[in-house]
Amino acid sequence: MSSDEIELVQRAWSRISLFSNEFVRDIYQELFHLDPRLLPMFTMTDERLIDKVAQTLNTVLTSLEQIESLRFIIRHLGQQHRRYGVTPEHFNLVKVAMTRTMARRLGEHFTLPLAQAWSAAYDEIAAIMIEGLQHVPRAEAPADIALE
Fold first, then answer.
1. DSSP SS3 for 138
2. Which of 3, 117, 119, 130 has the fewest CB atoms within 10 Å around its CB?
3. 47 pLDDT band (50/70/90 cuts)?
4. Number of H helices and number of E strands within the chain?
5. Model-level pTM?
């Protein structure tokens, strides 16, 4: 991502961040509207999940210029999503839900350059999460056993 793209995304996030929990709640409503079959994947209580996602979004989006420093955290987040049955295909649905929600929230401030910058930011973050999602930790190698 270019510094201009990062600035666009961060400026947009600053307009949303004061209401980040509402933003996340709207994302989930949009996501479940897009695919109601996803609802059973969400076992955490609504408010706890919404708060966690809002905090994570804030951390990542306000630190986009240091995305490489956050890579291990984002990758780990992807690994954690495996236990909920998340697949790489789900990331496209989440992107649509987030983008639609952001566009509604920002109205006329959701410009084409912002849409493109947002798409680039999301794709970069999602790619790192998918790395984690697809990473299968190697089982520890068995100790050498001497056969007699």
1. coil
2. 3
3. confident
4. 6, 0
5. 0.85
